[in-house]
Amino acid sequence: MSTIRFKALEKSMGRKPLKVKEITARRSDLFGINVFNDEAMLQSMTKEAYQSVKDAISFGKKIDRKVADQIASAMKSWAIQKGATHYTHWFQPLTGATAEKHDAFFETLSDGRAVEKFDGGQLVQQEPDASSFPNGGIRNTFEARGYTAWDPTSPAFIYETTLCIPTIFVAYTGEALDNKTPLLKALQAVDTAATEVAKFFDKKVTKVNATLGWEQEYFLIDSAFSDTRPDIKLAGRTLLGHSSAKGQQLDDHYFGSISDRVMAYMRELEIESLQLGIPVKTRHNEVAPNQFELAPIFEETNLAVDHNSLLMDVMRKVARKHNFKVLMHEKPFAGINGSGKHNNWSLATNTGVNLLSPGKTPMNNLQFLTFFINTIKAVNDYEELLRASIASAGNDHRLGANEAPPAIISVFIGKQLTAVLNELEHVSKGKLTPQEKTDLKLNVVGKIPEILLDNTDRNRTSPFAFTGNKFEFRAVGSNANCANPMMTLNTIVAKQLLDFKARVDGLISEKDMKKDDAIFNVLREYIKQSKNIRFEGDGYSKEWEIEAENRGLSNNKTTPKALKAKLNPESIALFEELNIMSVVEQQARYEIEVEEYVLRIQIESRILGDIARNHIVPTAVRYQNTLIKNVTGIKEVFGVQYEEVAKEQLLLIKKISKHISEINLLIDSMIAERKKANKLTDAEKKAARYCSKVKPYFEKIRYHCDKLEITVDDEIWPLSKYREMLFTR
Ligand code: ADP
Ligand code: MG
In whole angstroms, what is the distance from residue 678 CA to residue 602 CA? Predict the structure, then answer.
């Protein structure tokens, strides 16, 4: 075995679980202790300041400067008392990650003394030197004119010794440069639209929150192994590696018992997360070996998005401590499942009602059906945009690869609700007869079981499934920031609910219909119009691809293709109309995502070329030399008969030469294609070219490298093998 691999294996085998400090406190006592939450605010702030923050959270009211000073002062005292020395505006630039720039509370006075300072101005607004964040041409980079502004709806928290203040990030010219700004606008839009519709059923509703419960999948491998793999270190995934004889075929990892080392990691991760206010709840093994999942209790969407971004950071940090490398790439290993991040989504009123949960009365159920059908209609009308919202180079490996939902967006609702919609569809047009109405209320709407949860059939192949009291958007990638898909989903639902309200109001005022009649009428129309998006069958099947095409649904398998939907006139108009993003902002985002795609493929292509040339080929040559020496020896001993005696060795020598020359030829051609692509100045054309001309070489080069892996002496192979990375814990 190669020295590097041997050392890696030795290091990994010798690792004991890290002792996690025994915390006897109940989980609920740990929860949020490092968060400037309601409790902390109540205890440290004046009534006026407290109320001002509450109003900002509930109604988006502005906080005036004097009050901001009070809040800052309270926040500072709280943070310093908890050991914080620095503060930072914590934001989510368009890299998808989080960003922070720490400043000390410390400041000197003119007389040389030092004080701890942090005022309203520093709380509310900052100007990071942000010239290196992607901006899609909105800002001239040398100007670096962007600022961060406090988002009071997501509470400040202490991470290590830094007070982190969640903020938005915008250019001085007003355009958003981050993921949070459009998300907040979309959440505002869906709140306004959904509140108006909810008022049809309950006048007391004044606010609707979109809720999100994500499920984060990830792999853990020993860092000693990842250290031998430039591909994992630089691209977050393996670009080559022969599959392990045992993979996931036995399904023995799923929900299996968790090893001590992994358990120690999970425990520390959970404790850290809870203290940061992330309500983590479930943990289990996933399908693939060394794959796991972590899910929290759902929260208001903006908060849930922040919490997921923060969690991803905490996961990496805790992993380093435990000598693990955490992989959140969508496809770290070929041949076994990749990782996703299911986004469970619903709408909740300030009166405590989940609008996607069937209720006790027919009226409750009509409300449920209203939001249910409108969501389906929204997905139907904007399926391609929803697909675009989850497009990334990493996710391309997952979608449609028979383990994750296909690249075709469809909605699964289960047998029972399909039956309900089929009945509703046949309601007669116009005013309903009293008989019909009673019948409908009692026999159709009234029959929706109060708790669908237990008897909804699960269809794991659907990208957008109704699961009893929420929709589950399953096509989101594990590495993604949830903000993008959540911004899109909430925007299309907001638009849909606005249309619905207008249609119902129109029927009431123009056709003199009763409210119920009008609602039934519009819902019936929507059911008919959105039939194409509903699919209950096997989403992995070839038949579905054909059928979906006949239905006119999109099937955008690659990121460059999928992203184009963002520039459709309807998409542009949608975000403009609802005031979520201007044309400039939308085009900038498109450009950034297209460029990111190019960069990812370009980087992977370089890494693969380097590994193949610097690791694989030299190792193969070394082994080949051993064989040649062996053959020479045989020749000395056996003379003319050597060809017969050394038959296998001679074949192997030839085989190795063939793979080596193929690898070299393929790399040369790949580099030539890269050069051609790099000459293109149009980002969209470049991305398309990288996708169709450069990327196809990956599989071809890998094929020969993997063949060499199983040919060459295990002793000298330099890269950790799949079986080592996946089955050592
Ligand atoms: P699963 O079978 O997919 O694990 P669960 O009922 O355990 O289903 O829920 C999975 C996720 O759904 C959890 O993260 C949970 O917080 C989230 N969830 C449950 N109810 C809602 C809701 N009303 N809105 C958003 N997310 C929700
Ligand atoms: Mg799930």
Answer: 9
**What is the length of the chain?**
729
Q: What are phi and psi of 474, to 5 degrees?
A: -95, -5
Predicted local distance difference test score (pLDDT) of residue 457: 61
Report d(CA 314, CA 277) in Å as an integer: 12
Q: Do the beta carbons of residue 295 and residue 213 sit within 8 Å?
A: yes
Report pLDDT for 590.
Answer: 95
Q: Pick the closest to residue 383 from 218, 524, 496, 506 (CA basis).
A: 496
Q: Shortest CA distance to 177 belongs to which of 301, 304, 302, 91? A: 91
The tens digit of pLDDT for each residue in 508-525 reads 999 889 998 999 999 999
Ligand 1 contact via 473 beta carbon (within 6 Å): no
CATH homologous superfamily of 31-178 = Glutamine synthetase, N-terminal domain (3.10.20.70)
DSSP symbols for 144-174: --EEEEE-TTS--EEETTEEEEEEEEEETTS
Q: Are 176 and 182 in contact (CB under 8 A)?
A: yes
Residue 297 near ligand 1, beta carbon < 6 Å: yes
User: How far does the centroid of ligand 2 lie from the alpha carbon of residue 468, in Å?
Assistant: 12
Atom from ligand 1 closest to the CA of residue 344: 26
pTM, 2 dp: 0.94
Categorize the per-residue pLDDT at 250 as very low, low, confident or very high, splitting at 50, 70 and 90. low
Model confidence at 231: pLDDT above 60: yes
- Judge: domain 187-577, CATH 3.30.590.10: yes
Give me ligand 1 centre to Cα 297, in Å: 7
Residue range 596-727, CATH number: 1.20.120.1560
- Segment 666-688 mean pLDDT: 97
**pLDDT number for residue 129:** 65
| CATH 3.10.20.70 residue spans of the chain | 31-178
Query: Which residues make up the CATH 3.30.590.10 domain(s) of the chain?
Result: 187-577
Closest Cα to residue 486, out of 180, 194, 279, 273? 180
352 C-alpha to center of ligand 1: Å? Answer: 17
**Whether residue 729 has pLDDT greater than 80:** no
- For ligand 1, pick from 470, 474, 486 the residue to mutate: most ligand atoms within 8 Å of CB: 470
> Which sign, positive or negative, has the C-alpha torsion 526, 372, 195, 581?
negative
- Could you give the CA distance from residue 100 to residue 121 in angstroms, rounded to a whole number? 17
pLDDT digits (tens, 9 = 90+) for 37-60: 988 999 999 898 899 888 888 877
Specify the long-range contacts of residues 349-353, CB closer than 8 Å, at least 24 apart. Answer: 349/195, 349/198, 349/202, 349/205, 349/207, 349/208, 349/209, 350/205, 350/206, 350/207, 350/208, 350/209, 351/202, 351/204, 351/205, 353/198, 353/202, 353/205
Residue found by looking up tokens 């060394």 in the block: 290
